[in-house]
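Encode chain A's predicted structure.
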Amino acid sequence: MSKRKLKLGHRITRSNQRPDMAGFAVSSTSVCVCLLEEMNGTGNLMDFLDEPFPDVGTYEDFHTIDWLREKSRDTDRHRKITTKSKESYWELIKSLLDAWSGWVVMLLIGMLTGTLAGVIDLAVDWMTDLKEGVCLSAFYYSHEQCCWTSNETTFDDRDKCPQWQKWAELMTGHSEGAGAYVLNYFLYVLWALLFSFLAVSLVRVFAPYACGSGIPEIKTILSGFIIRGYLGKWTLLIKTVTLVLAVSSGLSLGKEGPLVHVACCCGNLFCSLFSKYSKNEGKRREVLSAAAAAGVSVAFGAPIGGVLFSLEEVSYYFPLKTLWRSFFAALVAAFTLRAINPFGNSRLVLFYVEYHTPWYMAELVPFILLGVFGGLWGTLFIRGNIAWCRRRKTTLLGKYPVLEVIVITGITAVLAFPNPYTRRSTSELISELFNDCGALESSQLCDYVNNPNMSRPVDDIPDRPAGPGVYTALWQLALALIFKIVITIFTFGMKIPSGLFIPSMAVGAIAGRIVGIAVEQMAYHHHDWIIFKNWCRPGADCVTPGLYAMVGAAACLGGVTRMTVSLVVIMFELTGGLEYIVPLMAAAVTSKWVADAFGKEGIYESHIQLNGYPYLDVRDEFTHRTLATDVMRPRRSEPPLAVLTQDSTTVEDVETLIKDTDYNGFPVVVSRESERLIGFVQRRELTVAIKTARQKQDGVVSSSVVYFTEDNPQVAEACDPQPLKLRRILNLSPFTVTDHTPMETVVDIFRKLGLRQCLVTRSGRLLGIITKKDVLRHMAQMMNQDPESIMFN
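Encoded structure for chain A:
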């Protein structure tokens, strides 16, 4: 018996276009190369795939990768490099370069991601202010930059300078009055409509995948799914440009989620430079996991939070090596953004704050109440947004994405302009809500009644009664809260880049600031109450409303995304202090508990389900007592599996089977009578092998017998056609389970090994197949959901 070297492989799936047929299909998922076998003593017969053919080992669009095969291929590659490195110094140098290629890729990803984030921040800042006016000294300056360079700016009026003029003042010479207000109002709406129209048009024409947040698709891709073009160069370019336009239009969306998509596009771009990653989809996904961490790092200025976000929220396979490289990529990205310094405050984000007042145990009650609000808001948003997106997919609304964007933008701009808290960018709003009221603050939120006899140290101002500006700000914030809650539901999911982090944080920050001011005034006017007596003396700085805004922002973001650990780390990296971890933890955990009581899925998992992606969440639990025989195909009413025999099928039979079916692969059995399983062969490899054999091997005709046996076939007579041996493309170790295997075990196998299908046998006899789509549909059916919503395998 000849020696064999086996390499792992797999896969098959069933087509969603042929639900009535059992077997394996190509159209909706999965392709893979199987098992290769190297044999000695093959005689004069060709055993195909001696040399790699083009497209063998690659995957088609909307197919799932074979994790086991990719891991095996990388192990073989590494073993080959290690062996060669002992032969010469040149091979040793090549092995060292291969080992360092991962760190080089991380360095490049971090630098490009940080640079793009800095450019996006600067462009958004300028274009947002462009809706209201222009800098005469340099048109490319934002309002703040324009007044920085002015020598005529005073501290009290630091937002006003002669070089910056609103459009009405520039056009008519008048900055006050009803006419100037109406003109500024009209131009604000016009600019918003122009920006959003350009954004949706660019996405629709050049890169349809550049729309949305991108995180649901990134999660699906990292789980092993192939979406060609989603991380391509055009998507990177268009997403970067349209993200600036979408955020600048004033819509209730953020750039943080799309920055993760942009970072993953950068990762995919640099993967193509190294064959180690470009030819191995499993290794590519390790790079993409690190790129996601870099994206969050520059989005929030939180490198550690970015690594934890990638680990907790988006990654499917996250080995220790990827953890180190994610940390390095996030670090380089943060350094690059810090060097650009887009906000001019030596910080990585616009809303960096520092608090100087400790929190007290009694404040945990309002913090937990904010957590409850965050959970309720998360539930409301997910249900409302998914209902709207489902309506968009199933009605005429989805056929007019440009019109939808224009209408939502028009409504947003018309309603946002009269309220100063909705007119400004959402990041600036969050920054103001987070800020503590120091002696130098000029915001309405800091319009307190001051005691003239009171000394005013900058960092420790006692609690004071609220002035008229605070009460005006409160009702404006209440209106802004209602507006943000409603409009965000309809904005997220449109055909433009749209992140969810910032709008969710804005909702929580508004609610938190309102609660914080209320608690502050209660503590001031009722300091003799028992809940305030022990920790809030008259004349003390007891309550920090900005802290409540930060806790509310964390609660609402956690309620929508179901993040916990990474969310808390991101928020405390924003504040620069560890003292407020407990309030943040209390709010994040409470919001998750409350939101989970109404549904386990966060917004990203809900959108994955809505789009029918084959995502098997590791957090899903399967507790039903069903067996593999209850789920496997074919069912009793369906035709039997299409199979090949090991030594009695002709080339014509195989070609007819490939032509008449769209299965993605075929089990190989000893004979149709015994149904004893030998292995599994992929449709793609079978097609390539037969085509190549007809070109390279003399005597192969339609009547040639195809052999999958180990021994060389013998030609009985000289006139018989040359047989075709395809042993090398046969997977001799397909993953199998018995028909009485509990589905709980099957689900765990699919989840932990990254399988796409397994064969069902009884005592070695083939009975059927279970695909990843079958598992997902069965789980949906057990949860009383529509199983037909799973469209891909």
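The CA atoms of residues 356 and 604 lie 36 Å apart.
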